Amino acid sequence: MNDPLRRLLASRWTWAALLLPLALLLPPIPIDETRYLTATWEMTLSGHWLLPTVNGALYTDKSPFLFWLIASGWKVFGVHTWVARALALAVTWTMLELLRRLARRFALDAAAMWLLAGCAGIAIFASAIMFDLLLAACVLLAMHALLDLDAARWRRGVGVLGAAIGLGVLAKGPVVLLHVMGAALLAPWWSATARAAKARWYGALAAGIGLGAAIALAWLLPAAWLGGPQYWEPLLQKVSGRLHESFAHARPPWWYLPLLPVLLLPWTLALRAPRAAWAALWRERAGRFALAWCVPPFLAFCLISGKQVHYLIPLLPALALAGAVVLAQTGARVAARLYAL
User: Fold this and answer.
1) Any residues with CB less than 8 A from the CB of 64 and at least 6 apart, and which?
2) Would you kindly state where each structural domain of the chain is located, as residue ranges?
3) Tens digit of each residue's pLDDT (9 = 90 or more) over 301-312
4) What is the rounded CA–CA span in Å between residue 268 and residue 61?
5) Which residue spans traverse the membrane (predicted)?
């Protein structure tokens, strides 16, 4: 294979171009995607961007950030389903780029990005009109903020962390904290800076959370004031109900265990490494970071009663980073025949 062709096949733009026809041609899938597009359409028609509605009724199930982005795209390109799908694909591409840059900060190559791009979970949901992709991008941005704090870039770290948390709440609610706090609170395990300056580290975390809350409240308080109790009371009930005895999607605690390996295909079959390579996840800083990032929220999701397979999407970048750590070790490889299958 000549060098120009190899560079083309290794391009993130080529990956996006391969999925673009799906984004352009696939119609909205009931019930969720049609509901989200309805909310965006009513927002566009009414001009009221604070309070989403569906069929004229207040819609408290979801935060508005995705609706805002789609509505903005419609103002530029017209009202088409492909605009929403192309936006989802752009968010997925952003996830890949953020993960590539994150891995580079640990002196790793682009393997993490390609492990994420090639897994079944991303292949299935890359152009889906859903909130989890946007949430995953916000979580990745928060991970960059933690590495800024690790590098003692305190002001930048607090600012980026606050922006990531605030946008994450606007994307899918306070669940963003569940994804971020594992790596943040366990930082002394993977960060020398956090071990040496614990008070300053946790103070910076508190400041970042406060900034994120301020960003989220800049929408939530006016929305609650305009919508009144009929808006904020169902909102609070839904948040608490999904933590305990979910009103919808209630599953047993073990429900995610067989699904996660499926989302990681083909790598669950094709990634081969000796025990010493897997031990690097505990030994090396990047491996500890990846474990602190993905294990606490996964355990929490297993305990929370409401479960859907796409709730795991924000965990896939962490698992891809862990896979890249393993592949960087001696003896680790991808079995080409199993990957082809």
Assistant:
1) 43, 49, 50, 52, 170, 219, 223
2) 19-231+249-340
3) 999 988 999 999
4) 34
5) 111-143, 163-189, 201-225, 254-274, 286-306, 312-336
